[in-house]
Amino acid sequence: MESFGTATAAQKGKIHRGRRIFTLAQANRSLPLVSRIVSDIVARHKKICRIEERCQTNDHMHSMEDLERIRDQYADELDGLQDLIEELDQIGCQLKDWQRGIVDFLAFINGRPVELCWRFGESCVSHWHEVDAGFRGRQALEDHADKASQPAR
Q1: 64-91 vs 24-57: helix axis angle to the nearest 10?
Q2: Cβ distance 45 to 99 under 8 Å?
Q3: Assessment of whether the complete model's pTM goes beyond 0.90
């Protein structure tokens, strides 16, 4: 039987380095805000890609004024994207994929660090993976969902 949230102080200190440690319930409670931020990140990322594509494919078709305007727009979009990423950092989760909107929440299962893994569009946090496994290592939480608890201190 595995349980959420149990970790020694030494384990927590080694892995989180300032990151918030979540229970499953805490991660799910943060989703309304996280989802709005990630929605904006995904949209802004698409816009940045379109600007880059426009510059690469039509570079010779723009006047200097057009290029300056496009560069300013690009810089503004990047600044806005950075602000959104900082908002996620303040919540305590980490953006792992700008295009697909994948976010990880640090947690512990049976005293070992894991990432609760959420993808934009999912209604709740329902997967996890080892810290070094990434999205491809996702596993369903169905066996663990009722064992969420406050992290040990």
Answers
A1: 170
A2: yes
A3: no
Residue 97 CB contacts under 8 Å (≥ 6 apart), including other chains: 135
Q: φ, ψ for residue 72 (rounded to 5)?
A: -65, -45
C-alpha to C-alpha distance for 79 and 84, rounded to whole angstroms: 9
Distance between CA atoms of residues 39 and 27, nearest Å: 17
Helix, strand, coil percent values for the chain (each to nearest 5)? 50, 20, 30
Q: What is the pLDDT of residues 77-136, one digit of tens each?
A: 999 999 999 999 999 999 999 899 999 999 998 888 999 999 999 999 999 999 988 888
Tokens 């996620």 locate to 88
